Amino acid sequence: MLPDVLKVRTSDNVQIGYVAAGIPSRFMAFLVDALINLAVLLVAGVAASALYSAMGSSGGVAEAVALTVFSLMLVLGHFLYFAILEATSAGRTPGKRALGLRVVRVDGSAPGLGESLVRNIARIVDYFLGIGLFVAFFHPQSRRVGDLLAGTVVIRERTAAMHAPPPPMQPVLLRAPDAGPPIDGLDRVGEHEHGVLRAFLSRPGLPPEQRARIANDMAVKLFDRMDMAPTAPERIWPPELFIERLYLQLTARLGHA
Amino acid sequence: MRVEDFVARREQSWRELEDGIRRARRGRLRGMPAQDLERFGMLYRRAAGDLAIAARDFPDQPVSEYLNSLLTRAHPLLFRGPSPRLSRVVRFYAVELPRAVRSAHVYLYASLGLFALGAVAGWLTVVLRPDLVSSLVPPQVLDGLSQGHLGNDQLKQFAPALAAFIIQNNIMVSLIALVAGVGFGLPTAAILATNGWTLGTLGAAVHQAGFDAGFWSLIVPHGAIEISVILIAGAAGLMIGDSLLRPGLLRRMDSLTRAAQRALVLAVGAAPLLVIAGMIESFVTPSDAAVGAKLAVGAVTGVLMWSWLLLAGRRGSDAAKARARKRAGARPSLDIPGAPAWSPSDAA
Q1: CB pairs under 8 A between A and B
Q2: I need a labelling partner for A99 at 20 to 30 A (CA). Which of A174, A213, B13, B57 fits?
Q3: ipTM
């Protein structure tokens, strides 16, 4: 199954694709964040209540302010944790970082404070009766209600684990020891066909019968395109041999090394 | 070009971009020297060009996927929303929030209407069906009022904790009224009407029992701000619901996203005012001050709040210009000399 891709155009009108994160990895990231959040709130709560009992109740406005800050922290701390961390780390809370996830806007840019606040206050709706899970389950990019409101998507950065260009796939010749006799109609095919032949030959791991079938299909199309005479000897070569020889001769004609 | 040549020729520049990405701290390029920053932008645009070439010439090669992943990592570093700054808070409350409230006046009327509807319905129910009063209004409330309970010393002792609870509770209610708007505004409408209903039934029952002054002196001091904020949060929720019901020329999803940003300004901006309301509710309301003084507190805070919301952030020059234009009776200057005068009504 292909992952769901968020397509974005850069300012140079080049299309780049972000891989949308799935529900399981997002849930794992949520668990990590929730645990960290809980630990922080617990420590802050214990410290605050120790301080409170040490100072004693005065009944004044200052005490009310302190208690308000504290109770707001307990109730809103969960939402603020996500909102503040997402806004200050370009969409990567510790949990998301651990799972290789990131929040981006639907245009691929990093979220600001506005988006972070919207998508995390909307957790109130998302938690209610599991609405968020339900909506994400049916959304092609697994967006929950908060994402829809904020115009954000959670993407997977794990595919970015490679930090250097991987070597190109090399064509592997399994049969032809040499280019063989010159093939008629070679000038009727060019770069495009060369690329297709190369892509085919770069996959030596295909099951033999499947490889043979694909080679046969390709050979039939190539005979057509090259206006091959019905009596040409190439038509009775094994298709895989024909393709490898054609590739070698085409490489030589196009001047590739 | 062969893919090997392509990679060999461009690899150095991609590695340099990788380096730049690695140097970004906390997802931003702040702190990078100016010339490096310029170079980063150039490398990003080159890599984008390389991806376009690779996608055309070598779509099956791993290098295409690599370039895509390289660009998805570089893109959010260059393109981002404004960073949160503390200095924006002042401008937000001096200009942006009042403007947002004024531009949402339609939703404020709707919010007020739903609240009033609930209140009138509650009042009428109590008047028309006296047999239901005992189930609508807890009898303790009336007993408490008749004995002056709600102003006693016991309550004053817990004032700080009471304030904390009330504030926290009201902020949650206003945030719920905001986000519940995604249910096509219906949950928000229900929250507004229920709050009105509670006030209406209580007010009517108290009126029948003859404790009007005592009751309203318990509601008005903080209620002026508190109810205003709930109405603003409700208006924000209704705005979100309306964006789904009537998206106009936008797709519903885009309309929702746009409305959510506007609504956030209203609800999240107004919610901190509930701290003031909660403080008044815990310290002024149960105090021994005269009824008149308590009502005055409500009136003053209400007038202050709404004159701020209605007057702050108006651009004087703009308003003056608009008035001047009106006085002069000027039309948009599309008039062509010699042509018949054009007026907007002709276009309709």
Answers
A1: 196
A2: B13
A3: 0.75
